[in-house]
Amino acid sequence: MKQAKTGLWPAYALVGVGALLMLAPFYFMFVFATHTRTEIFSQPLPLFFSDAFADNLHILMTRLPFWKNVGWSLYVALMSTVLTLFFCSMGGYAFAMFEFRYKKALFTLVMATMLLPSFMSMIPSFMIMAALGWIDQHRALYVPGAASAFGIFLMRQFASTAVPKDLLEAARMDGCGEFAVYWRIVLPLLKPALGTLGLITFIGSWNNFIGPLIVMRSVDNFTLPLALRSIQNPENTEWGALMAGSAIATLPLLVLFVIFSRQLIAGLTAGAVK
After folding, report:
1. pLDDT digits over 161-184, tens only?
2. Burial bucket for residue 76 (CB in 10 Å: 0-12, 13-18, 19+)
3. What is the value of pTM for the model shown?
4. Cis status of the peptide bond prior to 252, with omega within 30 of 0
5. 3-state secondary structure string, the chain?
6. For the chain, what is the domain count?
7. Is residue 75 part of a domain?
8. 137 CB-contact burial (10 Å; exposed 0-12 / middle 13-18 / buried 19+)
9. Residue 113 belongs to some domain of the structure
10. CA-to-CA distance for 207 and 198, rounded, in angstroms?
């Protein structure tokens, strides 16, 4: 037993080194957010927190409508999450519980869209948004991805194991319509998978840079990643202010992940084996 525990030390050391390498960028981002641009590029590199965060935040707000950009990011992320949960849960429930013509072919087609590189949709997405008149409109950021292939797949896998068909038949015999069955019975049973998909969708939408870059035009409508990128330039980038904005943008995601990490892992693994 003692030899077995001793043999685990290399594994623990490897995990510890990996954790340090992963956490170091976050630590330095928060440290640099409290330093001026001159201090960031000084030698030796600043390793501890300073007192310039308020000044960096002031610089950020003079160059950007920063809190407005934060608000737009929150709005887009919430809308993306709500729409994705609604449509993906309906689609996954249908693929898991109903039999209809071309079901397998349609599901294969949905899954095949995951094989396409994301850059292939950039120009078609812009053309469609321009034809709809949605350029510089936030609906262009959350409507197109409302029924993601990954979300439908996750909901289907979970629903196929978590939703008893006998319960659905009993509800129909009691007079429930199909939407009432979905809303009152299926959705509560899908809560673990909904939580996982909601967290993944929110984080992905909050961090989305390419989508806003394609369709957004005015700085007042920028989401946070695009707004922070807009203040970078080759000659006069206020790196302290940029790090302060990045820290504010990252902090909510870190808190969400810490709180819901266990549910995220449980939801991803649930339904993996039927």
Report:
1. 888 889 899 989 888 888 999 999
2. buried
3. 0.87
4. no
5. CHHHHHHCHHHHHHHHHHHHHHHHHHHHHHHHCCCCHHHHCCCCCCCCCCCCHHHHHHHHHHHCCHHHHHHHHHHHHHHHHHHHHHHHHHHHHHHHHCCCCCHHHHHHHHHHHHHCCHHHHHHHHHHHHHHHCCCCCCHHHHCCCCCCHHHHHHHHHHHHHHCCHHHHHHHHHCCCCHHHHHHHHHHHHCHHHHHHHHHHHHHHHHCCCHHHHHHCCCHHHCCHHHHHHHCCCCCCCCHHHHHHHHHHHHHHHHHHHHHHHHHHHHHHHCCCCC
6. 1
7. yes
8. middle
9. yes
10. 14
- For residues 267 and 196, is the Cβ–Cβ distance under 8 A? yes
Residue 267 clears pLDDT 80, i.e. is over it? no
Residues 110-134: pLDDT tens digits? 999 888 888 888 888 899 999 999 9
In a domain, 143, yes or no: yes
In a domain, 10, yes or no: no
Sole residue written with tokens 């006998």: 166
The Cα–Cα gap between 118 and 252 comes to 26
What pLDDT, in 10s, does the model give residues 212-255? 999 999 999 999 999 999 988 877 888 899 999 999 999 888 88
* Nearest 10 degrees: Cα torsion 67, 69, 73, 78: 60
Say how far apart CA 48 and CA 181 lie, in whole Å.
56
Q: Is it the case that residue 5 has pLDDT exceeding 70?
A: no
